[in-house]
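Journal club prep, notes for RB
We'll compare a predicted complex against what the paper describes. Inputs for the BJW case:
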Amino acid sequence: MIDESSLRAVRGHLRATSRIVVLTGAGISAESGVPTFRDAQTGLWAKFDPQQLATEEAFRANPRMVWDWYVFRRELIGKVSPNAGHRALAEFASRHPGRLTLVTQNVDGLHQKAGSEGVLALHGNIFDDQWLDTPKPCCNADAAAAGSPPYCDRCGNLMRPGVVWFGEALPMRALDAAQVAARACDLMLVVGTSGAVYPAAGLARTTAGQVVIINPEPTELDDAADIVLRGKAAQVLPQLLLEE
Ligand code: BJW
């Protein structure tokens, strides 16, 4: 149970500022049924550590296994819908144009599906494909040979998911825009992230604005927070954003 005075304080900040950044992580999609990144995996994948799978090294060593992990997750995410947390953010932004910058680490596309526009997706999109190695003229993504993963039948180049793995650079335009917004904002809501992965987590450490964490569990960013709301995103966000 979150105390009403903390909720009132955050609602006050939301009313008072026109420069709000929301940084989201896997926890915001938990109530849609998407397991968080560091959650125990289920079924066939229970024995694998996601941190060991989400790397180029793992993909090159065992492309079929890593590709199949993404196919499994694509199928799971394809079946779920945005929840009240995603919807509250989209609704707030459409009622207050230009006031909110939404930055997400999530690759599930649920913010966009909820109607949020201009989402800065720092870690890509799980439904995109791209070539593993710089494509040659023979590499035609639309004509990739079926396989696990699909491949170029001329040179053997492999398709991989269009996400950002550990050790890879984030999309420069999205990261630059997120850093500029974070530095300039008066209020940052940090929702459903463990705060363990950089440079995304660094946004909460470089902002001059008030930092509000929304998470049912402790995070690695709690020391940077002005207010911590210990609750679930799909419950807390509507209370903050839709009850003015
Ligand atoms: C709820 C809830 C509910 C549950 N409501 N909440 C500085 C210091 C140390 C290390 C580094 C550093 N800078 C860079 C690094 C290295 C590395 C890194 O950060 N490593 C750390 C592990 C230490 N970073 C990188 O490698 C990045 N690249 C980079 O820095 O490149 C440099 C470079 C420059 C130029 C050229 C080349 C290179 C890349 C990071 C990419 C991260 N990618 C992933 C995988 C994406 C694809 C996929 O999904 O398969 O992104 S990793 C994974 O972590 C995924 C997530 O987006 C990301 C963050 O996870 P998130 O969202 O926080 O999820 P969880 O599971 O950790 O937490 C869930 C939270 O939800 C929990 O807190 C729950 O309590 C909460 N929760 N239910 C609200 N209902």
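Talking point for the session: Residues 82 and 110 are 5 Å apart (CA to CA).
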